[in-house]
Amino acid sequence: MPIATLPQGWSDIMTAVAADPWASAYTIFDILNEPDSHGLTWQASNGHPGVGDLYHQVMTTGYSINPSALLHKPREVHTVPLRTKGAVTLGDV
Q1: pLDDT recorded at residue 93
Q2: What is the Cα–Cα distance from 78 to 56, expressed in whole angstroms?
Q3: CA R_g for the chain
Q4: Is the C-alpha dihedral spanning 61, 30, 84, 91 positive or negative?
Q5: Three-state DSSP class for residue 14
């Protein structure tokens, strides 16, 4: 999925998850795993959006869809992937 479509992609997924009472209570959204592997940094550079801007867009939209959504946002650009049985990331769908 192209990085530019990340906010809309997450909006679509969060809307679908919010429609399922069980899933909406037990889903953690890992917004973007290892953004540095996509050439992204916290600030916009080299024609790429900044990770901070992407996270802000996704979180703002996500909380408007489901105010109790659990969003995983790393403290630094490099992060460990959230992988548990049955877990998916946006790149998997």
Answers
A1: 42
A2: 17
A3: 13
A4: positive
A5: helix
Q: Which residues 6+ apart lie within 8 Å of 3 measured at CB?
A: 38, 40, 48, 49, 54
Q: Say how many CA atoms lie within 13 Å of 79 toward its Cβ.
A: 19
- How many DSSP H helices and E strands does the chain contain? 3, 2
Interhelix angle 51-65/6-18, rounded to 10 degrees, is 20
Q: In this structure, how many other beta carbons lie within 10 angstroms of the beta carbon of residue 63?
A: 13
Q: For residues 7-43, b (16+ Cβ closer than 10 Å) or e, as one string?
A: bebbbebbeebbeeeeebeebebbbbbebeeeebeee
Average pLDDT for consecutive 10-residue bins of the chain (93 residues)? 78 90 83 79 86 87 85 49 45 45
